[in-house]
Amino acid sequence: MDGASLGNEFSTAVIAFHEAIGRRLGVSAADHKALGHIGRHGPLTAGELAAAVGLSPGAATALVDRLESRGYVERVRDAADRRRTLIRARDMPDLSAVFADLQREAAAATEGFSAEQWQTITEYLRIMTGVLRRQTTHLNDSPGSAT
């Protein structure tokens, strides 16, 4: 399998995994990932959330509405600037068992990797995360059509 095909297969597997988690929570994969971001980096404004996860402001508002309706987040006034509304995690789901299973299987699958291999993998992921973030910004900022 060539690199492009492998990358496509890996990307699809990651999305499918997060869709399965989202289904358990009653939300989409994008909603699940945004909820995780809010839990790690919140409270934050809807605009900050939109920028962080690559959504339009309108799409981020709809996403927050869905998470709020499930009780996962709440909108609160910013104490420092009462004109701003912040999104704050409220009732975060416990996914520790799901991620413990993933971590256990991943550790077993990669237990023979050397320190040098891990360094290469880590550097690759760091670089590709930057590439993906820049390409997401480019796609979001550029008018165009998928056809």
Layout of secondary structure:
Elements: H1 3-25, H2 29-41, H3 46-53, H4 57-69, E1 73-77, E2 85-89, H5 96-109, H6 115-141
Antiparallel strand pairs: 1-2
| CATH class division of the domain at 3-94 | Mainly Alpha
Q: What class, by secondary structure content?
A: mainly alpha
Distance between the termini: 27 Å
List the uncertain runs: none
For this structure, the CATH topology of the domain at 3-94 is Arc Repressor Mutant, subunit A
Helix count from the secondary structure assignment: 6
CATH superfamily of the domain at 3-94: Winged helix-like DNA-binding domain superfamily/Winged helix DNA-binding domain
The whole-number mean of residue pLDDT values reads: 90
Strand order within the widest beta sheet: 1-2
Radius of gyration based on Cα positions: 18 Å
CATH architecture of the domain at 3-94: Orthogonal Bundle
Order of helices and strands: HHHHEEHH
Q: What summary fits the major beta sheet?
A: 2 strands, antiparallel
What oligomeric state is this? single chain
- The share of residues in extended strands comes to 5-15%
Percent of residues in helices comes to 55-70%
User: In one word, what is the shape?
Assistant: globular
Strand tally, please?
2
Domain HTH marR-type: 1-130
Protein name: MarR family transcriptional regulator
Pfam family, one: MarR_2
